[in-house]
Design a protein that fits this description.
- The complex is a heterodimer of chains A (379) and B (222).
- Chain A is of the alpha+beta class and 379 residues long.
- Chain A folds into two domains: 174 residues, no CATH class; 167 residues, no CATH class.
- The two termini of chain A are 28 Å apart.
- In chain A, 43% of the residues are buried.
- Chain B is α/β, with parallel strands linked by helices and 222 residues long.
- Helices cover 30% and strands 27% of the residues of chain B.
- In chain B, α7 links the parallel β7 and β8.
- Chain B has one domain: 3-Layer(aba) Sandwich (Rossmann fold), CATH 3.40.50.
- The two termini of chain B are 29 Å apart.
- Chain B contains seven helices and ten strands.
- The chains are: A alpha+beta (379), B alpha/beta (222).
- Chains A and B meet through α1, α10 and α13 of A and α3, β6 and α4 of B.
Chain lengths: 379, 222
């Protein structure tokens, strides 16, 4: 028999209260897991989209709220290509549309023979003709589409010439058509959403003589900025952190998570204080027979930490289920295959451990303030 | 020089409610090693208060207590003093209902440095001594009151205390169980040479041990 065993027995002794507390903590951790998980996955999906394209810099319209509201003139492509450090410039027009089945689908407009196609694993062939389109494997599966089928984009029918796989979740849930066609459909001739820029890079040794890819030179970034006065040139981190919708969602997820944590702490603390009050006699007698106060504190903290950890385990499960439900409810292909990575699971477990410990502090102090003589005097 | 007293009280007084209520007044008491002392007296005479003071659970308002010639006030500050030296038995047992017989007896041993095997061996020895070997894994609330008191005695003795303080240990028991408990105390006193101080309000023949004092209104009257 040890303290952990006694803590377990104590929790088992008050089963209903223990279960309700674990469930309460579980819901709080689930809120953290689902909202933060969703936010992190969206950011990662966004980052991967650019990484996979080999993008070093992105030019967006200055002051645009998000990607979809950005507008740039296509003529900047040639100006930027003239910069010696620039390897390639790929204009992209982005659109979002809704299908008959209430599915939101991303539509990319890329130039024929764009370098961006080289990062996709295409079964079939890339779009060449006006009404050609390729579809992400995930979306194809969802919409039950195959090569040769037709897909409707804002009232225009496209024939699927290929199905592609991409590391980017956003691309996997999208349809790619030729840029001039999408420009025409959206009535945005010679306009694009953004410009993907890849720079010529060498490998440069760091101080440990490990060769790493060079980061984009700030000077090049500045020179491109001067060429596109109405544009804003961002590196990969810059574009990820400045995406307003992602940032708002991230802040919102933190706010909800913090409130949920506070509720969980109060829930465990309430359970533990009630338990301490109910066991005043037992704690008093343990102190009378010579148990040290640190042992009583450990016992209470064991109990509260167990509640936190069990709640955490339940929360991870509930959170994962919630993410799946969220993803299917939002009909967002790009986030529907989110998985909780190991680090995130560790973080959630650590959060529930800290939560359990924090909520046990006050009840533990209450327990050791019990005077054995007060308990025995009223025998 | 060693006085030979395991516990000695000098001019011990205890007041409550800002000195308005005197629970004990000017108590002088010496208890020698291996003695079985009975403190008799009616309810409210100060027996429990005296035991609590002698066990270091409470501090006297006036006077000093010495345990093996050392001031008890200093001794109780040492973290393991009580667990290693003093055992307590209470009238209402104070067992932990969520634990079984063995686990209740093991509780004080969690403060010891013995390994798991040794702890269980020690607990089993005491459980056998109080005659509960067949019920070691019983939930304590499934036991009779007499058996519960025997579990409490085993718990008090498991660390091998030099001094056993028993506060009305037979107060809740029928006559057969009373005799059982007193038999155990006598055996512990004789065989293990454990000093026992037992408070009781009973005056029957079976309560005549090596020495007996009587309290009335917080003073020793006999």
């Amino acid at each position: 028999m040890n303290l952990l065993y006694i803590a377990f027995k104590n929790l088992w002794h008050r089963k209903v209260r223990t279960f309700l507390t674990i469930f309460g903590v579980g819901v709080s951790i689930a809120a953290f897991v689902s909202l933060r998980g969703l936010a992190v996955s969206m950011v990662e999906a966004f980052r991967t989209t650019y990484q996979e394209r080999g993008t070093d810099l992105v030019v967006l319209e200055k002051g645009s709220f998000d990607l979809l509201s950005s507008r740039l003139d296509e003529s900047f492509v040639d100006k930027i290509k003239a910069v010696p450090e620039v390897l390639s410039v790929n204009p992209v027009l982005l659109d979002i549309t809704i299908t008959n089945f209430m599915n939101y689908i991303l539509i990319y407009g890329w130039e024929a023979h764009s370098n961006l196609f080289s990062n996709l694993k295409i079964t079939g062939k890339a779009p060449v003709n006006e009404h050609d389109a390729i579809i992400g494997a995930m979306l194809a599966k969802k919409l039950n589409k195959k090569i040769g089928d037709s897909v409707d984009v804002r009232g225009t029918a496209f024939t699927l010439t290929g199905i592609f796989q991409s590391q980017s979740l956003f691309e996997e849930g999208s349809v790619i058509v030729l840029l001039p066609v999408l420009q025409r459909i959206k009535k945005m001739e010679h306009q694009v959403t953004l410009l993907n820029i890849s720079l010529r890079k060498g490998l440069k040794p760091n101080k440990w003589f490990v060769f790493k890819e060079e980061k984009p030179d700030k000077q090049v970034q500045l020179r491109i900025s001067q060429l596109v006065p109405e544009g804003e040139v961002k590196d990969l981190e810059g574009i990820v952190s400045s995406e307003n919708i992602l940032a708002i969602f991230s802040k919102f997820s933190w706010a909800v998570s913090i409130v949920a944590f506070i509720i969980a702490i109060l829930g465990i603390a309430n359970n533990m204080i009630t338990s301490v009050l109910e066991q005043t006699r037992e704690i008093g007698v343990l102190l009378a027979i010579g148990w040290r106060k640190t042992r009583i504190v450990s016992l209470i903290l064991y109990e509260s930490t167990l509640l936190g950890l069990m709640g955490g385990a339940m929360g991870l499960f509930l959170g994962y289920v919630t993410i799946r439900i969220f993803a299917s409810m939002l009909q967002m292909q790009s986030i529907s295959n989110i998985s909780l990575d190991f680090l995130f699971v560790v973080k959630a477990i650590a959060a529930s451990l800290v939560l359990g410990l924090l909520s046990g502090i006050y009840p533990a102090l209450r327990a050791v303030s019990i005077q054995p003589i007060e308990v025995l005097r009223y025998e | 020089m060693n006085s030979g007293f395991i516990v000695e009280a000098k001019n011990l007084s205890k007041f409550y409610e800002n000195g308005r209520v005197a629970a004990l007044s000017e108590i002088n008491l010496q208890v020698t090693n291996g003695e079985f002392l009975t403190i008799r007296g009616s309810s409210g005479s100060g027996k429990s208060t005296l035991l609590h003071l002698l066990g270091g659970l409470d501090l006297p308002t006036k006077g000093e207590i010495y345990f093996e010639d050392k001031n008890l006030k200093d001794m109780v500050r040492q973290s393991k003093f009580r667990i290693n030296n003093i055992g307590f038995v209470f009238q209402t047992f104070y067992l932990w209902p969520i634990l079984n017989v063995l686990e209740n007896v093991l509780l004080p041993l969690l403060e010891s440095d013995f390994d798991k095997k040794e702890r269980i061996k020690k607990a089993d020895l005491l459980i056998n001594m109080v005659g509960l070997e067949g019920k070691r894994l019983f939930a304590v609330n499934k036991l009779s009151v007499g058996e519960r008191q025997r579990v409490a005695i085993a718990r008090a003795l498991v660390m091998g205390p030099k001094l056993l303080l028993a506060d009305e240990p037979t107060g809740s028991l029928d006559s057969k169980n009373k005799e059982n408990v007193l038999d155990i105390f006598l055996r512990v006193n004789r065989e293990k040479k454990t000093t026992i101080i037992m408070a009781t309000h009973e005056t029957g023949k079976s309560y005549q041990f090596s020495r007996s004092i009587e309290l009335l209104d917080g003073r020793i009257i006999a």
